[in-house]
Structure formats: structure tokens, C-alpha cells
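Q: What does the assembly look like in three dimensions?
Context provided by user:
Components: two
Sequences:
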Amino acid sequence: MTSLKTYVITRVLLTIPMIFILLTLVFFVMRVLPGNPVIAMVGMKASQRYIKQLEHELRLDKPLWEQYVDYLNRLLHGDLGRSMIWGRRPVINEIMDHFPATLELTVWGFIFSVLLGLATGVVAGVKEGGKMDFAMRVYSIVVYSLFIPWFGMVLQLIFGVWLHALPVGGRINPLLTPKHITGIYVLDSMLTWNLPALSSSIRHLMLPSLTLGIVLSGIYTRLVRSSLIEVLGQDFIRACKSRGLPERSILFKHGLKNALIPILTMMGLQFALLLAGAVLTETTFSWPGIGTFLMERIEYRDFTTVQGTVVFYAIFVALISLIVDLIYAYIDPRVRY
Amino acid sequence: MRSFSSVFSGIERALSGAGLDGYLVIFGSITVMAVLIMAIFANYIAPYDPVQSVGPAIHPPCTKYIMGTDSIGRDVFSRIVYGSRTILTVVVMSTGLSMVIGIPLGLISGYMGGILDRILSLIMDSIYAFPGLILAIVIAAMLGPGIYNTALSLAVVYIPTYFRMIRGEVLSLRERLFIEAARAIGAKSRRIITKYIFPNVIYLIAVIFSLNVADAILTEAGLSFLGLSVTAPTPDWGFDLKNGQRYFLSGIWWPVTFPGIMIILLALGFGFLGEGLNTIVSKRGE
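A: Here is the predicted structure of the complete assembly.
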């Protein structure tokens, strides 16, 4: 157990420089690049005094290193600053208003992509080099190349316009919005036994999460395939065969179970892809998540909110990869060095 | 001078024994070549000026406008032909930049090891773990629109891809006998890296290049779809797709469908090329 403890401590300590590097990157991207963010926001015609005042508020009149220390210091205290427009709310509150929508979309997209990836990956990996293997490899490249906005729009046209089966945008029928508990509508409506809200939110979720899930499923196809091929080539599988165990039981009970463990390590990186894909999915389906929020604020040149949102993404991604690695270490004892 | 037939027999020999993966390479190369030719000879292929209104607005495809016209009467086909220039320029520039920075850093970091390697790897891994499109969005938003700015923002995103792959390969090459022999006879590090290690990673660069370009194409298209890449009236597939989105669900399918198919085809071309090459090369290795 002590080795697990050492691993956890090392891994947690490694997360700190990672977050620090990302925060530094965000800082420099937001400041060193040409252009004065204040003038970019308020325009050239704003009065000199107003520009000066905003610059002072954003600490842009201080030397760069002082800005940097100040920026890190504020983040350490959980302060992402205030929005520069519309009521000047704290950025963290604005983000938290939109985060549940993104979480709901990505979790469902994740589920679809894992299910599709598992099915296609197993079909491919059972017989390496066979016709089905090749077909599934082609599948993985084709779905990955499907440009999310285009694919989403095609699904909107088919299921929304032609078949009238599913809504093409938004999160829920606004009249049915459930009581706010977690902000995740499917969960909230289940907790309050609100069946109409549940059905409306699931129906709204279908197209965006399928779009995201199908496009990203190709990555899981490849991961499951290569991992399964490796496991099936190992001695213990040959031992199972020689003992005369049925093929099906060898494949699922011994092969797939062991093949899934290494796939876990890749989940952290997949999650980053999921978040990136979510930006395009959200804009295509007018899904009110962090992606659409970020794009809206870029358009309004809300400097602090854009910075805060990216910082949020950075910390979120680092924490997810930390959690994934810790779960992996817990499941697979070989990791705990 | 080699004749065409000898070139073809060379290709045939290279692909023999490749099986189905040979077809992937062929499909990929043909698609990529077709788009390349389209971009180079755009002024001969496009029937109309891509930025001028040349007919009635929102005209469905017909013999005169084979892919129809967009919301202000520009010829969709001509815009697609010229749009190939935009996306290829951005992707070629950005990939070139990522390679020029990522490959040498990967070579040095992997060969030298030590504290430099630790620091560089940590930085590259951190950037790699961050969602690429979101990083590109922020850089592009801060730099402002334009072809060069878009290329720069994509380049930053893909430097770690080259760094990590090259570094990993160098780590395993470093332990090989011929490198040790070179070190034993007193070759300098610089000579070992350029003369002995680099030639051995070139095939890998070709594979990463194809797969990475496929990804860069989708990211470029994503950036332009979000309105962060080029400004009107520049023809660009992702940007045109975004402009057509408003009318798409009311049945005006052509300004969206054709640019979308082109983006997918080009990404698919590079993706198949990379996948095919990768499998063939690793089969050879065995």
C-alpha cells in the first residue's frame, strides 16, 4: 500500500508544474501578442481617460513580471477576475452557469464514443489483418475526418427537418426547465421526478452527443483494437485455448478485460479531444455550454472572461488527467513503482 | 531521365505485399494530388471570380453553376477551387513551422537527456494535454484574423506532436549498437544526431506528417468555421460552411454540403495516406 501512496504523492506533485506551465502559456498568449486588449475591446474612439482606467484595472500599466506575479497570486486564491461586460459578474460564476451544459454533452458524447469504439475495436482486434479489421480501421479514419459542424448539420437536416424526430438546437424546451440542483438537466429532472423535462432534455441531447460521440469513436476503435491484439497474443491466452475454454469466454472474460486497462491511461488525453470537439458541437447546435460562451466573449472582446475560461479549461484538463492516472494506478498494481 | 512507366513500376514494387493498405495509400495520394492540382491551377479551373457576385443569389446547382451560388450570388464551385489555396497554404505553413521547431528539439532532447530533456518534455506534454482547438482559438483570437496568424496558431498546437514522437524514437535509437559504435570512435554529439539518428527518423516524420496534416486540416476548418481564420471575402471552406449554415435547414444545402465534403475528403486523403504508410512501414520492420 505504501507504494500506492508514494505514487499518488508523486503524481499529485507532477500536476502542479503542469498547471503552472499551462497558466504561464495562457498568460503570455493573452499579453505578449500584439495589440492592446483594452483598445481592442472599447475601440479607438474611447476617451483616453477611460482606456487608462481600464488598463489600470487590468493591471496592464504595470511591468510584465508584476502582472505575472499578480495573475498567479489571484489564481491561487481562486480569483478569475470579473467580466468586462454585462453586469461585470465574477468570471467563475459565469463559467459555472455554462459548465453543466458542457459536462452533460461531453459525458453523453463520451458514452456513445466508448460504446461504438468498443464494438468496432473488438470486431477489428479479434482477427488482426482480416477483412473486418481493415474495414474497422477505415471506419476509424472516416469518422475522425467527419468535420463536426458539417456532420452535425447533416444530422440536423435528416432527423430534425426531414423526419421531424428530434430538436435541432438548445438544451431543453425552456418551459420545462427543471429545478436547479446540479445544473445537469437529465440528472435534475430525474431527482425531481420531472418526466416531461427528462424526455425533453434527452431528446435535445441526442443529436449533439451522437455527433460528438460518433466522430470521436474512431479513436477508441484504434485503442481497443491495438490493445486487444496485444493481449490476445500473450501466453496466458494460449494457455486458455489449450485448456479448451470456449472462444467467447476467452475473448470477453480474459482478453477484453485485460485489454481495457491500458485504454484507461489514454482517457485523460481523450477528454481533451472531447472538450475541443464540444466547442464545435456546441456552436453547431446552439448548445449553451462553455464553448459557445467562450466564442461569444471572444466576439465581445471580454478579455478577462476569455482568459478566465481558458485558465478554467487548463486546470480542468490537468485535474482530469490526474484523476484518470490515479484510478489506473488503483486498478493496475504494476503502475505503482 | 526516368520514364513514367519506370516510376509506376517503382510504385508497384513499393506497394506489393502491402495488401489492402496499398489501396489506402493510392486513394490518399490521388485525393491529395487532386486538391493540390486544384490549388495550383485554380485560375484555370475556376469558371468565375470567387469573390464577385456572378449570378442570382442562392441558385441551386445547374449546368451554369455546377455547385450552385451562395447567398450573395457567388459561384460555390469557384470558391471551393480557390478555397483549396487558403486551407493548403495555412496547413503547409503551420506544419512546416511545427516541424522546424519540434523535430530539432525532439532530436536534441531525446539524445542529450538530463535536465534539459526533463524540462522540455514537461512543457511539451503540458501543451499536448491541452485541447488543441481551444489553444488555437485563443491564439488566433488574440492575433486577429489572417492567413499567417492562423498558421502561427496552428503551429503552436502541433509542435509537441513532432517533439514527442521524435524524442520517443531517438530514445530507442540511442541504445542501438551503431550509435554506440559512433560514440566509441569519438563522433561528436552533433554529428551523431545529424548523420546517424536523423536519417533513421525520416520515415517516421513522413508518417507523423500525414496524420498530423489530417488533423491540422480539421482544426483549420474549425477555426474558420468559428470565424477566427480569414475574413470575408476570402474563399475558405470552413468559413463558407459557416456562412451557409443559416440557410441550410431551410433546404439550401449546396453552400454547406460541398465545402464540407471537401474538408472531409482532404482530411481523409491525408489520414489514409498516413495510415497506409504506417502499416506498410511497420510490416517491413518486422
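Follow-up: Chain B has one domain: 4-47+76-285.
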